[in-house]
Amino acid sequence: MPLPSSARALKKPRLDDEVRFLRSWIEKPLHMGAVMPSGKLLARTMAHYVDVDSDAPVVELGPGTGAITSALIERGVDQKRLVLVEYNPGFCALLRDRYPQAKVVQGDAYRLRDTLWNVLSAPASAVVSGLPLVTKPMLTRLRLIRDAFTALAPGAPFVQFTYAVVPPIPKSLPGVSTEASERIWMNLPPARVWVYRKD
Questions:
Q1: Which domains does the chain have, with CATH numbers?
Q2: Which residue, 60, 123, 175, 192, is the most exposed by fewest CB within 10 angstroms?
């Protein structure tokens, strides 16, 4: 039985996003955090760690087509607080169209200090990352979290998801506390959210 036209209309943006993601992944697989946009449960889990009552910026790394961005807004994060750091110019254009009040920065999140040096007006209340960390050398990952902590307010979270069974950044970093969500089996592939805070 065919879907009613209203149901087809609701499914179309998700399908379009999946096609965009797949095309970008085929062109540059190591630049993409996933083959498909994050599932709703994974995105909601990541957004859960962000303080909605703060006025401070929320930095999202690698937002892609905005699956996690939408979850942040649905949770209650004011769109004006969002600083979206995206490498892909096509995704940047899409994000500017979808989230006109957010600040979209086309730049390299793995060079976060350079990318954000004149962007933030105050320390961030969270950095939420959809980057493919496990595809990067450990020194690159450690530099990223160091730069993220420089941009963050004291005690604010660096939130990262991974499909891997091991944490994307070691749990034993000096002066850093970690926590992890349960494995999110409803995501494809299953994922876990890791949260890092500088003590």
A1: 37-198 (3.40.50.150)
A2: 175
